[in-house]
Specification:
Blueprint lengths: L6 H9 L5 H19 L2 E4 L1 H14 L10 E5 L14 H4 L10 H9 L2 E6 L19 E2 L2 E5 L5 H8 L5 E6 L5 H7 L2 E4 L19 E6 L2 H11 L17 H4 L8 E5 L9 H16 L3 E5 L7 H16 L18 H12 L2 H14 L5 H21 L5 E5 L15 H5 L7 H5 L3 E8 L5 E7 L5 H14 L10
Parallel strand pairs: 2-3, 2-6, 9-10, 9-11
Antiparallel strand pairs: 1-3, 4-5, 6-8, 7-8, 7-12, 11-13, 12-13
Helix pairs in contact: 2-3, 6-7, 8-17, 11-13, 11-14
Amino acid sequence: MLSALTITEAHEKLRKKEISTEELVRACIDRIEAVDGILNAVVHRNFERAVEEAKMVDATGEFSSPLTGIPYLTKDVFCEEGVPTTACSNILRGKTYIPPFDSTTTKRLKTCGAISLGKVNTDEFTMGCSTETSCHGVTRNPWDTTRVAGGSSGGSAVAVSSNECLFALGTDTGGSIRQPAGFCGCTGLRPTYGRTSRYGVMSMASSLDTIGPLCKTVEDIAIVMEAISGKDPLDATTGNVPVPMYRQTLKSAMKGLRIGLPKEYFIDGMSDDVERAVREAANVFASLGAIVSEISLPMTKYGVATYYVLVPCEVSSNMARYDGIRYGHTVENPESLLDYYERVRSDGFGPEVKRRIMIGTFALSAGYYDAYYRQAQKVRILIARDFEEAFQKVDAIISPVSPTPAFTIGAHEGDPVAMYLEDIFMCPQPMAGIPALSLPCGFSKSGLPIGLQIMGPQWEDGRVLKIGHAFEQATEWHERKVAI
């Protein structure tokens, strides 16, 4: 099955003319047609344009970039010129928003010759941990369709793990790449904040959002990161830091590398399968010559609470632009401008978006700002300091991605706090701005994937990828394929 190829494998076959770009693109299209009726990962299909672009690539016959002719899917918050982009929200879906421009990330991929197949499902405006809040309905986990794909980049993770594309783009604010990658058995990277551009990507929490890839291997992650990383004059938050040739560092030695195992990430209620898989992963690193030791990140216990004060505050601000005036959903015969705003936003936004807007507006209001928002920002600094001190003692940190494998669809319905606690191991890293990689490290007794999280210091994305690649080469977890 051509759609099951990695980027590296597909590039080699394209370069040697063993397959054509059109054949590769059509293989992905056929796979989507075959399985997506069950999985509900792809919400907009750009197939005709993709085939035409594939024919143009074949006509040139040049594959100078490893991404030339490679089909991918994009989370439905990335703007692509002429392609509907709705953030899986009725406020943009009702009167479909079609961007007149490209995000920096999709533009850079186009420059490399990569071919977009369309958009994939996400929690509404990326607000969720399970891809259950989408106006297009829930995306199902290909390993067990009664379970969630994770969120908010659940569509991206499912598309990769079920071979609907060769890679996908996602966003990660508090685990939205790492958790679905862990739940679905693929690999995903949350880059250092500022390593990739957010221009043209619909924001949830601007000081925490990052753009990253989901792929089948760590080497593929490195390939995509080389293409999309770097300073962007259209995004002032991107760092003016040189982009390494990530692939060249993947095979460097692990001997003597110091890896920390934080005791705070092994908690009551954690699945026995998850703890076993992560501790066995630590043993793999030790066998490769790394020095594994227990460390402490004492501020971890405040991560979720701090995150869920800061994020709603930024949500409250960012969602203000969706008023039905400039684009998106409209209503008929309003009694006044205020009535128009209220009806547009009441009809257009789902319950989770409304919940976060209300929490954020309350936390930012007069009399509560100091008690909540300002206090949370102080704790954010302490969490970042935790990591700074830890990285003086170790070169990288490993942990579970989530305390349990993928949960059943509807398991947390009506209990948003329980849903928020699914992010317990993934909220601290965004507040420190550090890179974190999720990759498969085992399976539960019921056959569900388990994810390993690898964290490194700011701008050391290459180090994180090197460690992940070494683990991948020493194990076979990433080679297991879904039966669907």
